Amino acid sequence: MKPVRRVVIRDKHPVFERELIELRPNRAVLAVATFALLVQIFAVTQAAMALGNRVGWFEHVLWSGVACLWLALGILVFLQRRAHHAGRLFLLCSSAGAIWLGMGTFSGVNMVDALLYSAGYLLFPPLLYAFSEAYTEQRPWRHRDLLFYVPPLVLIWPMAHDYVAGPKSLLWRLAIILAPLYLVAAMARTARDMYGATAPERQAQLRALLFGLVAGTVPAIFTFGIPLVLYSTPPIPTGWLPLLVLLFLVAMSYAVLLFEFSEADLIVRRGVVYGVLTMGILAVYGLLGVVLAASGASVQNPGGALAFVGATIVIGSAFTPIRRSTRRLVDWLLYGQRRDRWHALQAFSERLATVMQPEDLGEVVTREMVTTLHLRGAFVLWRTPDGAYELRNRSVVQTARRNPLPETLSLEPQLVEAALGSPTAPLLLIHARPLTAARRESVPHDYRTLDSFGVALAIPLQTRFSLEAVLCLQGKQAHDAIDGDDLELLAPVIRQASAALDNALLFARLQEKVEEVRHAYVRIAREQEAERGRLARELHDGTAQELANLITLATVAERQMNGHGASHETLDRLRRQAEDAYQGVRRASYALRPVMLDDFGLEPTLGRFLEGFRDATGIGVEYAHSVAVPLTDDVELALFRVAQECMENVRKHSHALRVEVELRHEDGAVTLTVQDDGHGMSEQARRGIGLAGMRERIDAVGGDIRVETALDHGVR
Predict the structure, then answer these.
(1) What are residue 624's DSSP bridge partners?
(2) Opening angle at CA 113, ends 112 and 116, nearest 5
């Protein structure tokens, strides 16, 4: 495949639109985010002035830095969602979380700090649940949703009071356990929505959100939430909390911002694969270090060095299986299917190795591309003899509703060739978001036709002679873009597909020539049979009748001479020779064109012929027939001529004493079987003109001939 020409079109909604901040709900949400930012400044000021800070100034800056990242993520999601309901909820959740984390080192200093800390801790989980509920933007907001925030609002004061007063009451424990309950509810709600979604794109987004929620919240629940409820103190230092929050931010960034990138698949695939491999390597060597430390050995000792080599061998042997399993996990995260794309493309490549018709090749290519790359659809624009491009071989996922394809479509050649450029090269259309509305673009004229059908990648299928077709791939089911890994996978397959198309077109042209030859043979055979019929009629109606008249006159003259003298003997000899000539003419007329075949059909005509053969040669003939369906004139004539040739070969070459002839209809086909008990057929005879002529005659009517023979076991 030639180098891909990438065209970036910034025609999506811009990242920032002034209109977004002019709506009252959005202004209120942005005011909350501004308040969260002021809280960070307030907390840093307190830390700088050493007013009751529990930790060092540098450590608190780390807490505030992660809190600011959390707030920045909320603003990004707010803009990405174009300030819709889900975007507002996520920004509110981020603001609450940033306040909680920013005040984390001041929770027990004074009541104001404790209230801010408690409000942030108790409000961000229900807001995160509300975000997961509104993630698909299909459920409208209702006033009774406010009841969902009543329990955390009620518990803010008791929780703050216990932080300042010292002893922890039951209400404090209830407040601590409330946050994990909301987080678990958010995961359960997302899982339910994911399994209920029908559109692949929505399923992928919910699957990514579920992964982000699980990866970001479960570690914090088990390391801080549950131990804090049970023992009032976490088992690990509170300095680890910003790192756990950072893990949550990374996971949620993946969940909500992943599909904004044009190469989302590539980011996830490589990130997860190499992340899992790195963790596996660290785990193996970490376990080795623990074992060596416990045993008092080191890698400098023979035993330690051998263990190090063994660990390296384990890592090397497990590398490929882990990578394959991780790729399947990534496919499940994005598309809900555990399928190895490399194996699928290998199977696809094997299918391309077979010669097939161009239309069949187009069906195979589009279907396999959609299945392997998880595309919304694919089709082929075939070049017609008049130069236009016609849409065929559509393969579309039923749940993909964007950019529906018409049933029939014919495009002018200049529309397609202008998009592919000169010289033609694969075209990759990438839609991106501009930063502001002023930078928003429209789709260039050359690409509008392909873009209107959702084409993300257009690949010209070039043969040795010319451009024959264009393979058009729509965007992926989870998102639009086709990434670098996809192009790397496609390159060898497209080269093989172009070669397969070249072979398919050559094969199609060869079949056309074969059909032309077959039709020519049928036409010639019909003309020959027509000429034979004319000669047979002339012999039967002309020469045969004249000979019959001559025999009659000779008979009358013989009777008039009363049977005496040499003249009578001469007339008798003349009459017998005329009778012989008459029979010879009748036989020749029958051989040229059996009139009985036109009048009564194949079965009785073949039976009459075999009776004559048995009487003339003395070879025993058994004839069985069971054809209940009418046959065309061409098929009847072809079978009769083949039977004639077979019996003539029996008479001349086989030295057979018995012949079995069977004509039957079975499984939608008519079969003529001729079997003798003669000496068999040599290899030279199997390549003879007679058998070749029979094959041509049967091929012309769509049949085939099989010959089975063995020495002294006859021919069948």
Answers:
(1) 662
(2) 85
Does 331 share its domain with 345? no
Residues 678/694, Cβ–Cβ less than 8 Å? no
Name the range with the highest mean pLDDT among 46-60, 65-79, 586-600, 637-651.
65-79
**302 and 416 share a domain?**
no
User: If you write DSSP's letter for every residue of 1-53 in order, what string do you get?
Assistant: -PPPEEEEE--S--SB-GGGGGSHHHHHHHHHHHHHHHHHHHHHHHHHTTSS-
Q: Give the pLDDT of residue 35.
A: 93
Number of C-alpha atoms within 13 angstroms, CB side, residue 630?
Answer: 4
Q: What pLDDT shows up at residue 492?
A: 78
Q: How far apart are the C-alpha atoms of 390 and 409, rounded to whole Å?
A: 6
Asked whether residue 434 falls in the same domain as residue 494, the answer is yes
* Same domain membership, residue 501 and residue 385: yes
Q: Which domain holds residue 325?
A: 282-335
Q: What is the pLDDT of residues 375-394, one digit of tens each?
A: 888 898 988 888 888 888 88
CB of 160 closer than 8 Å to CB of 114 = yes
Looking at residue 43, its pLDDT comes to: 82
Residue 539 lies in a domain: no
Residue 427 forms beta bridges with which residues? 5, 458
| DSSP code per residue over 73-102 | HHHHHHHHTTT-HHHHHHHHHHHHHHHHHH
**Both 350 and 237 in a single domain?**
no
β-bridge mates for residue 389, sequence order:
383, 411
Domain with residue 681: its CATH number is 3.30.565.10
What domain count does the chain have?
Answer: 4
Q: Which among 259, 153, 200 is positioned nearest to 481, based on CA atoms? A: 259
Task: Let me know if residue 563 belongs to a domain.
Answer: no
Distance CA 157, CA 637 (A): 104
Residues 422 and 294 in one domain: no
Q: Answer whether residue 270 shows pLDDT above 90.
A: no
List the single range of 114-128, 466-480, 488-502, 547-561 with lowest mean pLDDT: 547-561
User: In this structure, how many other beta carbons lie within 10 angstroms of the beta carbon of residue 653?
Assistant: 18
- Do residues 53 and 105 lie in contact, with contact meaning Cβ atoms separated by under 8 Å? yes
Looking at the structure, tell me whether residues 209 and 253 fall in a common domain: yes
Write the CATH number for 465. Answer: 3.30.450.40
